[in-house]
Write a structure and sequence with these properties.
single chain; Rossmann fold; six-stranded parallel beta sheet; 6 helices; globular
Length: 174
């Protein structure tokens, strides 16, 4: 099994329950119960961690970036871990390079940590997560939470690691 030096996570559907109609009230965002223990375990084992997330609710006017910062601070407190969040606040039709499946956020995270793409693993539940990782040269692990089952059907035949939840990373990496 390959040893990774850096773990990048999608947020919605990977680390927290997803509302496909957008969380209009960010105080209603709830983390998966298994997210905190795996994040803490990886962090305590010395792995750098980051979250790379599309948040078009900003562009749609549902909330602003300060609201996201408050949410992310709350999630980090609940998980008892410090994470760096890389956020695309743009609308899908804006054509930005930071929105997954674009690679700008992933590349920025790699640069900030000084880690090579081949030493990193992206964990997510969507086709855009998979495509962003693939384009950035980062290995990908699909979780079957969130949109994971739909994504697995769409990517059938594509070689990748499939985990029931992010909790499977502990067994996968050790």
């Amino acid at each position: 099994m390959k040893a990774y030096k850096f773990f990048l996570f999608d947020r919605d559907g990977t680390l927290n329950y997803e509302n496909r109609e957008y969380h209009r009230d960010l105080s209603a965002v709830r983390p998966y119960p298994f997210a905190g223990p795996i994040l803490r375990g990886l962090d305590q084992a010395g792995y750098p961690l980051a979250v790379v997330t599309n948040q078009s609710g900003v562009a749609r006017g549902y909330w602003d970036e300060d609201d996201l910062r408050i949410l992310h601070d709350r999630l980090c407190q609940e998980w008892d871990v410090q994470l760096r969040f890389y956020i695309c606040p743009h609308h899908p039709e804006d054509g930005c390079s930071c929105r997954k499946p674009g690679t700008q956020l992933l590349e920025q995270a790699l640069h900030d940590r000084g880690v090579a793409s081949q030493d990193s693993l992206m964990i997510g539940d969507s086709v855009s997560d998979f495509e962003a990782a693939n384009r950035a040269g980062i290995d990908f692990a699909l979780v079957l939470t969130g949109r994971g089952h739909i994504t697995q059907a769409q990517l059938s035949g594509t070689p990748m690691t499939v985990l029931d939840t992010v909790a499977g990373l502990w067994e996968y990496d050790h």
